[in-house]
């Protein structure tokens, strides 16, 4: 119970930060929105033809990839805020206080999830403005939110661990960068079938692809199938690994 | 308190007197001093090899990523996409590389090294033009690596060696010309980060809202109209004509004209702004 109350307090601290510095959310929502506009208007014509449709069809194909790219981009923000707390010495103070040790990190994770969901909502709104028309049912949308929450939780714990392993804020901002590349090296922007054999194998077996494909199916009103199981397993593995790694580094 | 300030004031006055008493520097001396400053910049590059990271990594990463990830979806297969893409990557890489010129100039100005140059009996433009001459090495490296990467991936330019060399020379000259814009930004901006931010705001739309990666025909009408007048599109088309067919088209002339206009406008602006700020 103590851990829950302390985590709620730390979450409130993070939400206050988000409220006072909204530019951070805008920055991390900005990159995926730029990608969205770039790929819809510059590449959309050719990519749409590549998937057997047009620009409008490509918006539908692209949006799940943009949602996941937003999660990867927000991970950088989480790493920066955790590393900043570590560098400024506030965490050292928290460690001397009679609070649950895990609450500091949990507060960061939950706050980051709120921040990420705001960014995803903004990116999705822009997608709707440029022609995204999902055909998901109410239950489908619930599934979309669930998958996004599950994957955001996992990636956020990983980014917290990456922040704790960093020696400086600059390093912490650079370490989650490869996560931004993974949606490109998956099915986020183009079908994996159009890739050369070696890259295609990697794209089909990396964690971002089942998440993107599950979101795509749910938003399309189709059953998620085995992709949902893969997405859940990957999310659980990443979350557990990230949490255990972060806890070990924090308690060091 | 006043005794510590007075000598500092005297030093500043002395520096100003040296600068005022400086004799007229001939054209030959200006050239020699510019080359000395260029050599200084080259030595800095040699001692800080991380300055070459963007030059080396960007052509490799972008070429591989665009070809292997998007090539199949855009052109059907990687090989078919390379003749369209390599000249586009060439333009993008060289233009991104020239952005660093302004950032490094601003860093030098912040460190106060230009205050020392001001007190030397050298041409005012030498510390400004020197690094720009040295940067030609970076543009050439970036351009050569782009084509080398393309060749490794199966690109066979129809223009042969002459066409490829002409495309590289054109890209390098364009990069050097546009570097004057970023040099000017470097002299007026408040910090190195500001220079980088402003430069990205200029470059991102110019490189991506061009025909560098997709044919103009696939773009929506309003965007195609902008892409047609975008100077980067002229460079990309000119580089394609040269590399893929050794064809010296009208686009080459347009690109060179645009470069000369940029130099004519921004070189004097940079020098004037630089003189005012040091």
From TrEMBL, chain A:
Primary localization: membrane
Residue ranges annotated for the ABC transmembrane type-2 domain, each copy included: 23-249
Annotated TM spans: 21-44, 56-83, 104-132, 138-165, 177-203, 223-246
Coiled coil: none
GO MF term (any one): ABC-type transporter activity
InterPro entries documented for this protein: ABC2_TM (IPR013525), ABC2_TM_bact-type (IPR047817), ABC_2_transport (IPR000412), Nod_factor_ABC_transporter (IPR051784)
Keyword hit for Nucleotide-binding: no
GO CC terms in record: ATP-binding cassette (ABC) transporter complex
Pfam families found in the cross-reference section: ABC2_membrane (PF01061)
Localisation: Cell membrane; Membrane
PROSITE patterns: ABC_TM2 (PS51012)
Keyword entries, A-Z: Antibiotic resistance, Cell membrane, Membrane, Transmembrane, Transmembrane helix, Transport
Origin: domain of life: Bacteria
Gene Ontology biological process terms from the UniProt entry: response to antibiotic
Lipid bilayer topology: Multi-pass membrane protein
Family: Belongs to the ABC-2 integral membrane protein family.
Protein name per the record: Transport permease protein
Record organism: Nonomuraea aridisoli
High-level lineage: Bacteria, Bacillati, Actinomycetota, Actinomycetes, Streptosporangiales
UniProtKB/TrEMBL annotation, chain B:
Main location, first listed in the record: membrane
Keywords (A to Z) from UniProt: Antibiotic resistance, Cell membrane, Membrane, Transmembrane, Transmembrane helix, Transport
GO MF entry, a single one: ABC-type transporter activity
GO biological process, one term: response to antibiotic
Residue span, ABC transmembrane type-2 domain: 50-277
A GO term from the CC aspect: ATP-binding cassette (ABC) transporter complex
Keyword Protein biosynthesis assigned: no
Source taxon at top rank: Bacteria
InterPro entries linked: ABC2_TM (IPR013525), ABC2_TM_bact-type (IPR047817), ABC_2_transport (IPR000412), Nod_factor_ABC_transporter (IPR051784)
Bilayer-spanning residue ranges: 52-75, 81-101, 136-155, 161-182, 194-214, 252-271
Membrane disposition: Multi-pass membrane protein
Places the protein is found: Cell membrane; Membrane
Keyword Membrane assigned: yes
Family according to the record: Belongs to the ABC-2 integral membrane protein family.
Name this protein carries in UniProt: Transport permease protein
Organism placement in taxonomy: Bacteria, Bacillati, Actinomycetota, Actinomycetes, Streptosporangiales
